[in-house]
Design brief:
about 150 residues; alpha+beta; five-stranded mixed beta sheet; 5 strands; Acyl_CoA_acyltransferase; GNAT family N-acetyltransferase
């Protein structure tokens, strides 16, 4: 199985939305079809705040990854955050997510991104091992805090 990354395009909207719906259901993330479409569609249409990559064959992707962008003084420029990474359950444990987490930073570095961040559930030891294997490091001094607006 190949973890080839393909930048999603507007014509991929239905494929991406189906994957996002599956991920949100699995992770018990409350979202509506309309809210998912409102969040994904601008990224596929070229809004500069992020990108969606399909994982695997473009005709039948096995997953997706959403990267959002911001500016960091600490990291010296544009940085990115993996907002969502999803691999379909039947193809998990085959190294696909590892391939994605190795290929994606290379692609982003070539585009001038200086750092890539992600968040992980404190209880999800499997995901933490995956991220550590792909050279993501915990920032023990910091804790993600959120205020919904």
């Amino acid at each position: 199985m190949s973890a080839a990354l393909h930048l999603a395009k507007p014509e991929d909207l239905d494929k991406v939305l189906a994957l996002v719906a599956a991920f949100h259901t699995e992770m018990d993330i409350a979202s509506s079809e309309d809210s998912r479409k409102a969040a994904i569609e601008p990224l596929l249409n070229g809004i500069p705040y992020g990108a969606v990559y399909l994982v695997g064959p473009t005709r039948a992707p096995v997953g997706y990854v959403v990267v959002t962008f911001s500016w960091s003084v600490e990291f010296g420029g544009m940085d990115g955050a993996i907002d969502e990474l999803y691999i379909r359950p039947p193809v998990r444990k085959r190294g696909i997510a590892t391939e994605v987490l190795i290929a994606l930073p290379k692609t982003l570095a070539e585009a001038g991104i200086t750092a890539l961040h992600l968040e992980v559930d404190r209880e999800d030891e499997s995901a933490q091992r995956l991220y550590a294997r792909t050279r993501f490091k915990a920032r023990d001094r910091y804790m993600l805090m959120t205020k919904e607006l």
